[in-house]
Specification:
The complex is a heterodimer. In chain A, the strands form three sheets. Chain A has a five-stranded antiparallel sheet. Chain A contains two helices and eleven strands, in the order H-H-E-E-E-E-E-E-E-E-E-E-E. Chain A is mainly beta. Chain B has one domain. Chain B is built from one helix and twelve strands; from the N terminus they run H-E-E-E-E-E-E-E-E-E-E-E-E. Classes of the chains: A mainly beta, B mainly beta. Chains A and B meet through helix 1, helix 2, strand 1, strand 2 and strand 11 of A and helix 1, strand 1 and strand 4 of B. Strand 2 of chain A pairs parallel with strand 1 of chain B.
Chain lengths: ~150, ~170
């Protein structure tokens, strides 16, 4: 009985640990930093910001990573930059691929098996018709496993 | 009976636990995306000198500058609630070596917009006071057009070669 009780307790404690709750079959997704900051001065320079993505899964578990913007980049005054004006380059290939952000539609970023680390460099093309201001939006990275 | 109840409880806990552990097949991570767009302005004018030839004061039209038409481009990024402006400010009236004066208000400019709508059609009367005369305004964008300059002629002008300088200033607040 004591053994059973310890098993149950251990199982329940395991559920509460962040590693188990974080992803598929005990996998974890780590994206750093958690803020991407584009600084745009005089066009036509392109603003660049990058994140490092760590996929931590056990063994050779297959996984798929997508990213989605939760809308266009917006200022408090209502000016917008469409999410599709943000593109990215993923490396190393072929696990990480290049792509274009989409508002509310997940876009494929990477696919692999087992733990992997990659860099995703985001680009925002500068244009004269952008209104000056401070824009913001949230990106949602999603790691899934079949 | 007691043992059976306990086993059922354990089984239920395991099933609930298993559902929580394996039912989640995704992990998500939020990243904040921000972009700081700074105000900026860029102005190009195809000529840096404007010359008015001699003319008959009885002619119906003012004297056109020999540089007409000159291509102008204005590229601005400004806040959504702000307006970029292009102004021209003369340093002084037109003056000759003898000190004779042609008031700067005798100079006017017109503009046509070829890309976007930023430049004032005019005629705009030039000024040497304050911030000068406004020759264009608008929101963020890349604009192109042409400028034409004119001098109102008069029998009252003393002969001579008159000069002054003027500055075009594009401001994106």
């Amino acid at each position: 009985m004591a053994v059973l009780a310890r098993l149950i307790l251990g199982f329940m404690l395991g559920l509460a640990s962040p590693a188990v709750a974080a992803g598929p079959s005990g996998g974890q997704l780590i994206v750093t930093p958690n803020t991407l900051n584009f600084r745009l001065g005089t066009p036509p320079a392109v603003a660049v910001a990058e994140v490092t993505v760590q996929v931590m899964v056990r063994g050779h578990l297959p996984w798929r990573l997508t990213v989605m913007a939760l809308g266009p980049l917006r200022t408090a005054e209502g000016s917008e930059i469409p999410a599709a004006q943000v593109t990215w380059q993923g490396s190393p290939g072929p696990v990480f691929v290049n792509g274009t952000l989409s508002a509310n539609h997940p876009q494929f970023v990477a696919r692999g098996e087992g733990p992997k680390v990659g860099v995703v460099r985001f680009f925002l093309r500068n244009r004269w018709d952008l209104a000056a201001g401070q824009y913001g939006q949230r990106l949602l990275f999603n790691l899934s496993s079949p | 009976m007691k043992c059976k109840t306990m086993m059922l409880t354990i089984l239920a806990l395991i099933l609930i636990g298993a559902g929580a552990a394996w039912g989640t097949s995704t992990a998500t991570k939020d990243v904040t995306l921000s972009a700081t767009v700074s105000s900026s302005a860029k102005l190009t004018l195809a000529t840096s000198t404007i010359s008015f030839p001699d003319g008959d004061p009885d002619a119906a039209l003012p004297i056109a500058a020999t540089e007409n038409p000159a291509v102008v481009t204005a590229k601005v990024k400004t806040g959504s609630a702000s307006t970029a402006t292009l102004k021209v400010l003369a340093a002084d009236d037109l003056k000759n070596a003898a000190g004779d004066v042609i008031p700067i208000t005798k100079v006017t400019s017109t503009a046509t917009n070829t890309t976007g709508s930023f430049f004032s059609a005019g005629p705009v009367i030039w000024s040497k006071t304050g911030e000068g005369a406004t020759v264009g305004q608008g929101n963020s964008g890349s604009y192109a057009g042409t400028f034409n300059w004119f001098l109102a002629n008069s029998w009252d002008y003393a002969t001579g070669s008159y000069t002054t300088t003027a500055k075009y200033t594009l401001t994106a607040p």
